[in-house]
Amino acid sequence: MTVVDAGTPQRIPQPHSRGLHVEPMIGLEWAEALEQPFGAQPGTPAEARFSWVHRAPEVQVIALFLAARTADPSVPAPWWLRAVAAGTLTSRLEGFLIEDRVTKLLDARPGWVFVPWGEEGEPGYWEYMPSERALSRPGMPTTLAHTDRHTGWIDVVPVHAGPTPPPIAVAGLADLRANLARLESLTP
């Protein structure tokens, strides 16, 4: 019987192949960092915060994101992480607070539904379901999503049946609150 000291790393025999060089696959590591639990159907952005990027120390999350983005500039990531990395948002917690405040506002209004799937890495988006009634053919309802495109952090895409119109930049929660009825009443 051989006793192995668990505290001492053991050398694992390598294949006898010359020129074999193995490097970590940053893309795979990043994909795993974004991975959500299987079967999760969150009802709000807060309920979707279970991946490594939501729980790990923020400095590690940013470092891994920057390394993954160096390998692939179009790597998927949550809007708040792109904003923190760019220096336009102070922290992940600030991003979470923005999402939570928008959730509180939209949950209090009838017709808004959180859609937990969307672009990879993103927390999801909101749809205003009554806006679909304005369409004469199938299309997309008014949609609200968080963005790092501007420091209002909120974009609204009006209801549409044809090509997707450009998003309307909302200048933050106060602007959203003040203009929500108008945004809900947009027609194609």
Describe the structure.
The chain is an alpha+beta fold and 188 residues long. It has one domain. The protein contains 6 helices and 5 strands. Strands 1-2-3-4-5 form a 5-stranded antiparallel sheet, with helices on one face. Strand 3 (142-146) and strand 4 form a beta hairpin. The N and C termini lie far apart (77 Å). The model is unreliable at 1-17 (pLDDT under 50).
User: What is the overall shape?
Assistant: globular
Q: From N to C, what is the helix and strand string?
A: HHHHHEEEEEH
Mean pLDDT rating: 87
The unreliable regions are 1-17
Distance between the termini: 77 Å
Total discrete domains: 1
Number of strands: 5
Largest sheet report: 5 strands, antiparallel
| Structural class by sheet pairing and helices | alpha+beta
What helical percentage do the residues reach?
A: 25-40%
> What is the percentage of strand-forming residues?
5-15%
Radius of gyration: 22 Å
- Give the strand order, joined by hyphens, for the main sheet: 1-2-3-4-5
Figure out the total of helices. 6
